Amino acid sequence: MQYARHLRLIDMIARTGSIRRAADRLGIASSALNRRVQEFEREMGARLFERRPRGVRLTAAGEIVIAHIRSTLSDLEQAKSMVDSLQGVRRGTIRIAAIEALANGFLPEAIAEFLSDHQQIEFKTTIMGREDVVRAVIEFDADIGVVFNPGRDPMFKHVLEIEQALFALMSNRHPLARREQVRLADCAEYPLALPDRSLGGRLLLEEFLASKALMLRPSLEANSFELMREYVRRSEAICFQIGIGTLSAASAGCRAVPVADRGLPKRKLVVGTLRDRVLPVASAMFLEAICARLAGTARNSQALAKA
To answer: In what order do the strands lie in the sheet with 121-127?
Structure first.
């Protein structure tokens, strides 16, 4: 559709903040893309982009138009998905934005299982911080967002909420690995790897420590659980992770032990979509599948935490 193509051109410029970078990604000349933008602006009767020395920025009119463009492109995708469904063809692209805790184990397994039954589906998955997950869903960059303890945003609809406990992750050889539960004071006697504030486990720790006379001084602070997991696997260090992120601990040579401090807060892992948006058929199917899988995982995690 030529109209849809024009809308995607404008959307790409808004996302890259540069006509030249957008043209490079689209494989067209920047002068040709600039002419199309100018034609579109004349049709709209307003400038959509403020030209700056190092790129472009949306004007107030541009902000209004880009919201309409993204909604329109989403509606077109939904219509195409429905037509495919009528024809018995399960095609489409599912776009997921998720926190890193799901990257090891849960999300790859969920995607692999789904694709085994729907081989014509494609996934585009982005791992990002919790605030970015919500933003990606609201700005139509993702159909589904999975995030820990998100801030309240009226446009982000909570489809499923799963309470998450905190676990201490350590090497199988660690002196505390044989325990059924540990306390933070026990862990503080060993080197610690703490997630930075973009990751969920750090939020739980800080809420609890704010009311206690206990200091946790990390030997490593990182925004990557993969890095922290490798560090603890190779040493006597301990890191902390919410339940969903511990599913592949055993295969990585680690043990996840529930943290049993009284008063330790629990927060929720949330699966969300854009409010009032009708998802494409493939995305709606995966949303149902991932919610069912998460509910089952949560029951297993809660049983482990209470063991």
So the answer is: 121-127, 92-98, 144-148, 267-274, 156-164
Coil, helix or strand at residue 275 = coil
Distance, C-alpha 122 to centroid of its chain:
17
Largest CA distance in the chain: 70
pTM exceeds 0.85: no
Which helix (H) or strand (E) is 291 found in, with range? helix 281-306
Cα separation, 90 vs 88, in Å, equals: 6
pLDDT tens for each residue of 262-298: 888 778 899 999 998 888 888 988 999 999 998 887 6
Question: What domains can you pick out in the chain, each with its CATH number?
Answer: 2-65 (1.10.10.10), 90-163+268-306 (3.40.190.10), 166-265 (3.40.190.290)
Q: Which residues contact 22 (CB under 8 A, 6 or more apart)?
A: 9, 12, 13, 15, 16, 33
pLDDT tens-digit readout, 175-193? 999 999 999 989 989 999 9
